[in-house]
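Need a sequence for this fold. Nothing fancy.
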């Protein structure tokens, strides 16, 4: 993601995400990051994501042509409320009717440090579910993030500077 320099993608099965309520989880999807997603089909279900970083994108899966828009949800970052409504149609198209990696929420200008994002499904149901696919963050240097499923492990390292003799 060009907007968040040196960013990393966090899967929806990551240990830093706590789901409240009966979210459905899928691990064999032909689209989406790592072929996984979490699906909320009842209002009030929430996901709490704690991370260290300075930039955040929330990615999900929506249908094409407005046939399956992102249902209303709240996004509370560090206690600040934002409500996202309407159809999201920007993402990578896949065969069939779904868009994966659609951007549900963006926070460009957060300070470096520890943050907490709470996503609450307001309108997703069985016919129009809220489908969470993961996050993109710009991590702090020397931060680590591990996935809930092994053997996946992601070590977030600072970028390696390019020597001046190799930059040209």
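Here you go.
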């Amino acid at each position: 993601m060009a907007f968040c320099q040196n960013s990393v993608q966090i899967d929806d099965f990551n240990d830093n995400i706590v789901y409240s309520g009966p979210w459905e989880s899928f691990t064999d999807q032909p689209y989406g990051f790592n072929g996984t997603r979490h699906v909320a089909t009842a209002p009030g279900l929430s996901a709490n994501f704690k991370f260290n970083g300075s930039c955040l994108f929330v990615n999900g899966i929506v249908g094409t042509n407005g046939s399956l828009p992102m249902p209303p949800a709240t996004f509370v970052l560090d206690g600040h409320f934002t409500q996202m409504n309407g159809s999201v149609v920007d993402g990578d198209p896949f065969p069939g009717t779904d868009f994966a990696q659609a951007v549900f929420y963006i926070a460009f200008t957060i300070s470096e440090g520890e943050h907490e994002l709470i996503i609450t499904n307001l309108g997703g149901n069985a016919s129009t579910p809220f489908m969470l696919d993961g996050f993109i963050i710009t991590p702090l240097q020397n931060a680590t993030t591990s996935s809930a499923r092994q053997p996946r492990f992601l070590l977030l390292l600072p970028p390696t500077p390019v020597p001046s003799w190799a930059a040209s």
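For context: Confidence is low (pLDDT under 50) at residues 87-95, 145-168.
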